[in-house]
């Protein structure tokens, strides 16, 4: 997968620091929930889905608690990356972007959050449909760029999102 960072490298930290993460503080409590709690509850899933997409969050409410627990227990313990993210997408209302949020906040913050703003800031076109290969390539890119810039994947995520918010042209109506 090809990419080109739109942010001048000397400005990445600046944009990361400009990110308003107040809404995210609710999710910080989930950091490492996978290793500690081992699963999500239906209410926790709803809260994560609501943070990622308020419009689509209601769909997550239809997942029975026992199903959420079973799927997330499997995902958090999976050794195969395809199984880990793919199983999360069995949950109603969870597509790859939301699954990436779950992995980031609940399992390991070296998983990037898949977001159209971040894709734009990396000059990566949003595919018509996300695939595991796309996710795997995106994850590798984010980890590589973060390492090159001596920052965490989360700091890079915040910079990519914030840069897009400030500089991405509005879609034509």
Structural commentary:
The protein has helices at 12-18, 25-28, 33-36, 42-52, 65-77, 81-88, 96-106, 116-121, 132-148, 153-167. With 173 residues, the protein is mainly alpha-helical. It has 2 domains: 1-19 and 109-166; 32-108, no CATH class. It is globular. The mean pLDDT is 91. Helices cover 55% and strands 0% of the residues. The longest helix has 17 residues, at 132-148.
Short description:
The protein is built from ten helices and no strands. With 173 residues, the protein is mainly α. It has two domains: 1-19 and 109-166; 32-108, no CATH class.
Question: What is the strand and helix layout of this fold?
Answer:
Blueprint: H1 12-18, H2 25-28, H3 33-36, H4 42-52, H5 65-77, H6 81-88, H7 96-106, H8 116-121, H9 132-148, H10 153-167
Helix pairs in contact: 1-10, 4-7, 5-6, 6-7, 9-10
Q: How big is the Rg? A: 16 Å
Terminal Cα separation, in Å? 30 Å
Order of helices and strands: HHHHHHHHHH
The shape is: globular
How many domains in all?
2
Q: Helical stretch count? A: 10
Topology, number of strands? 0
The percentage helix is 55-70%
Mean of residue pLDDT values: 91
Largest sheet, in brief, is: none
Q: Identify low-pLDDT runs.
A: none
Strand content: under 5%
| Oligomeric state | single chain
State the secondary-structure class.
mainly alpha
Key features?
173 residues, mainly alpha, 2 domains, 10 helices, globular
